[in-house]
Amino acid sequence: MNMFWGVFFILLGFSMIFPFNIPIFKIALAIFFFYMGLQILLGGFGINIKNKENTIMFKKSKVEVSSKFKEYNIVFGSGVIDLRGLNIEEIENIEINIVFGNATVIVDKNIMTEMKISTVFGSSSLPNGSSSFFGDTNFIIGDNQENKKLSLDCSVVFGSLQVVVNS
After folding, report:
1. Are 121 and 157 in contact (CB under 8 A)?
2. H or E element: which one contains 13?
3. Backbone phi, psi, residue 166, to 5°
C-alpha cells in the first residue's frame, strides 16, 4: 500500500510540472478499488482490531465465548460462535451482531437459552427448521431446571445466521 501512495504522489507531482492529459485521479481511484477488492477476495486484508477478540472483520474465524465479552460482531466476514463452554453463572446476556456476514451459533441444549433474533434483509435459520428473512423471532432452547438462563439478542442485517443445538 505504501508503494501505491508513493507512485501516486510522484505521478501527481509530474502532472503539475509537465502538463499532459492523463486522468491521474481516475486511474489512481481505479487502482485503489482494484487493490482493495483483491485484498478482500484473497483474504490478505483481515483487519485485526486490537484487543477485540470478539469482532470478526473481513475474514473467517471461530470465536470461543468467554465471560470477558458480552457482545460479538461479524462484519463482512464469516464465523462460528461457540456458546458451549460458557459459564452461565458469569454471564447471562450476550449480544450478537451480523452485518454483511455469515454466522453459525452453537448453543448447548442443557442450558436454557432465550433467543431474540432481529433480521433485516437477511436470513435466520433455527434448529426447528423455521427461517426468518425480515422481522423479529423469539425462540427458546432447553429447559430451566436450575433457574438459570442465557439470553441471546441477535441482529442480522444483510447477512445470515444459523443456530445449531449441540450438547
Report:
1. yes
2. helix 2-17
3. -140, 155
The Cβ of residue 150 has, within 10 Å, a number of other Cβ atoms equal to 20
Residues 6+ apart with CB under 8 A from 28: 8, 11
**Residue (of 134, 138, 135) closest to 163 by Cα position:** 138
Question: pLDDT tens for residues 59-94?
Answer: 888 887 776 778 888 988 899 998 887 777 766 788
Q: Which three cell numbers stand for residue 163?
A: 443456530
pTM over 0.85: no
Measured between its terminal Cα atoms, the distance across the chain in Å is 46
Maximum Cα–Cα distance for the chain, whole Å?
80
CA dihedral over 31, 37, 43, 47, signed as positive or negative: positive
Residue 41 and residue 43: Cα distance in Å, rounded? 6
User: By C-alpha distance, which of 132, 97, 96, 94 is closest to 113?
Assistant: 94
The grid cell for 86 is 460458557
